[in-house]
Design brief:
The complex is a heterodimer of chains A (about 110) and B (about 120).
Chain A (H helix, E strand, L loop, with lengths): L4 E3 L2 E4 L5 E6 L6 E8 L3 E9 L2 E5 L6 E5 L5 E5 L8 E8 L8 E2 L3 E5 L1
Parallel strand pairs in A: 2-11
Antiparallel strand pairs in A: 1-3, 3-8, 4-5, 4-9, 5-6, 7-8, 9-10, 9-11
Chain B lengths: L2 E4 L3 E5 L4 E3 L1 E4 L4 E8 L6 E6 L5 E3 L5 E5 L4 E6 L8 E9 L8 E2 L3 E6 L1
Parallel strand pairs in B: 2-12
Antiparallel strand pairs in B: 1-4, 3-9, 5-6, 5-10, 7-8, 8-9, 10-11, 10-12
Classes of the chains: A mainly beta (about 110), B mainly beta (about 120).
């Protein structure tokens, strides 16, 4: 089975712009979660989607949003980019059948100038 | 709120040395525990996990971890490390026995193994 894929792998944006990142989960996985990884804050949970609905949300401002499509693919959007949004954004998917394991993609490296 | 604490931020070992990385979590209910590894330039990979049952769990590449409920700990061990174990290690937890889509991670431990 193919793993979790994320596109694009690298992005450079300027402050004030917006960005959309994409994630394709492992085939058959219905839950998709997003995380932000930075050297200072480590890995932080952004949100989780299941059946096109946001099921869990982390402690991030409303500039961070996401959605999930009927084929379980997910996108996350960051509006009005700030320098502090520079990070590695990771997507993970799971089957969602009780306690489950999340499988991570390679991430999208976002640099905000 | 849940939190995960990894005591060692940077560990340097020589090959063949034994490894133990500490992990403590704060949550009083049912927990699911994970150790993930991030090799240089690679994505996060699962090393091992604990959901229930035998508190001593074995993972890939000779790693094991022990869940001690009374100590809220899930320490990672390996009897003899190799240079290829150089990586960043993350302890993580989810709560409950159902939906586990929200992983809470520790700050990570960077392991450097000298040949």
């Amino acid at each position: 089975k193919a793993g979790v894929t994320q596109t694009p792998r690298y992005l450079i944006k300027t402050r004030g712009q917006q960005v959309t990142l994409s994630c394709s989960p492992i085939s058959g996985h219905r839950s998709v979660s997003w995380y932000q990884q930075t050297p200072g804050q480590g890995l932080q949970f952004l949100f989780e989607y299941f059946s096109e609905t946001q099921r869990n949300k982390g402690n991030f401002p409303g500039r961070f949003s996401g959605r999930q499509f009927s084929n379980s693919r997910s996108e996350m959007n960051v509006s009005t980019l700030e320098l502090g949004d520079s990070a590695l954004y990771l997507c993970a998917s799971s089957l969602d059948s009780g306690p489950d394991t999340q499988y991570f993609g390679p991430g999208t490296r976002l640099t905000v100038l | 709120a849940q939190s995960v604490s990894q005591h060692n931020h940077h560990v340097i070992l020589s090959e063949a040395a034994s490894l133990e990385l500490g992990c403590n979590y704060s949550y009083g209910g049912t927990v699911n525990l994970f150790w993930y590894v991030q090799y240089p330039g690679q994505h996060l990979q699962l090393l091992l996990k604990y959901f229930s049952g035998d508190p001593l769990v074995k993972g890939i590449k000779g790693f094991e971890a022990e869940f001690i409920k009374s100590k809220f700990s899930f320490n990672l061990r390996k009897p003899s490390v190799q240079w290829s174990d150089t990586a960043e290690y993350f302890c993580a937890v989810t709560s409950g026995s159902g939906n586990t889509g929200k992983l809470i991670f520790g700050q990570g431990t960077t392991l450097q193994v000298k040949p």
